[in-house]
Structure prediction request, 534 residues.
Amino acid sequence: MAISGLISNRSFITSSIASGNLYQLRKDLSLQRGSIFSVQHGGHIASNLFARSRSHVEQREVYGLGVRKLNKINRTCVHYSSEEYGIDETKVDPVASDEGTGEAIPLEGNGSPVSPWWQQLPKRWLIVLLCFTAFLLCNMDRVNMSIAILPMSQEFNWNSATVGLIQSSFFWGYLLTQILGGIWADKLGGKVVLGFGVVWWSMATILTPIAARIGLPYLLIMRAFMGIGEGVAMPAMNNILSKWIPVSERSRSLSLVYSGMYLGSVVGLAFSPFLIQNLGWPSVFYSFGSLGSIWFAFWLRKAYSSPKDDPDLGVEEKKLILEGGVSKTPVSDIPWKLILSKAPVWALIISHFCHNWGTFILLTWMPTYYNQVLKFNLTESGLLCVLPWLTMAVFANIGGWIADTLVSKGVSITTVRKIMQSIGFLGPAFFLTQLSHVKTPAMAVLCMACSQGSDAFSQSGLYSNHQDIGPRYAGVLLGLSNTAGVLAGVFGTAATGYILQRGSWNDVFKVSVALYIIGTLVWNIFSTGEKILD
Prediction:
């Protein structure tokens, strides 16, 4: 009778759950609290309190976890044994023990708890997201000066030439650590070098207002110090991703990281005017610079320079990464003569210079252009500067998806890189030529947005090419080509100030267009997507 009663009870639970009558199930089960099911045979009584298991039937089923949990319920309801009837005692499910919290815990098909989504994220993409965040902070700390320079120039009586000098001083330090950052990253690991860079530039950002009030030379030195920190970011990131990301995911991962720079410009340009108007221009540097410490805490806990260094990396993901064509062998000596003898390396260097001339001019001078030419006020200049960078963030990821899709369909990497970079050169060249013909500020902003949006395809072109042609030396190659890019920033930013004193904005844009066309020719003639350095 006891056995039949138990079977009847279990059948009742099954039918109640299957029919969806969970309320009736909870009501009827509540009548059985404290009941004792007994089996009597040969004077031997085996009993078990049903109340404990009943409470967990309620917890799991009444909260709608479904019929899938029925087997788990049946195991936890039977806690007695009878040798004659062949009923074995089962262990109490730890999730359903008295020590539980009473909360419904979702389970996978094999009965194991479902991890939160952030724990299910592949580790290589966690590394990508941390690099993305670092680059977001990088550009937030860089572009805040392009907004703050407007009230600062009024307070300290700076002319256009002085403003150009201040803007270019960042690149003095930025230039120094490009190649050094690549060498350090390839030898010491990307985690150490990128972590150092973020801490260094964050401190320099915080100290910028103090330096400005002491005197112009101190401000120039502090901006150069900030450039030293940000100079190691790109080589270190390129190194760490060359070890973590398979070739099939390369364009998407790099595009996502570089879109962090664009979104950093968006956040910096959007929030800087409000901080300046409400708290004064120094508040921008204090608030943005302090965010680096938060990032650094996560970076120390979660990041590793290589998959081989990560003790928590899953076996399957490690196998995927190490078999995906990533760089495995650490660098001891750098073959400079071999590297500099390759035409595709020089194509990278020249193309990077041509690309960055136009990009850095827009990065540093766009708010001034909106303010002086389009007659927008400080807040409008900051907010409208957001649109081109937001466009870049979107189209960088679109370009990365297109590039990886083309590679997966069998299109050669060389062809993909040339297509992407040609768009990244010719698109901005076309839209900058239209600025002299537009009649309204709205159309000027639209041309700027389209120029920057097409520029973002470069992330799947030259910016992905370092890992294509020499994955072991990805950090050094990025440092080498970005040195040329930084020189373009130094000369281009300073030259723009002098051009504007003697000419017009059309003259500024004509120089950029000419360099875009030169870069297109050099890239399509000499670049390759094949590995040439091993």
Q: What stands out?
A: The chain has two domains: 120-327, 337-533. The two ends are 78 Å apart (CA to CA). The CA atoms of residues 24 and 505 lie 77 Å apart.
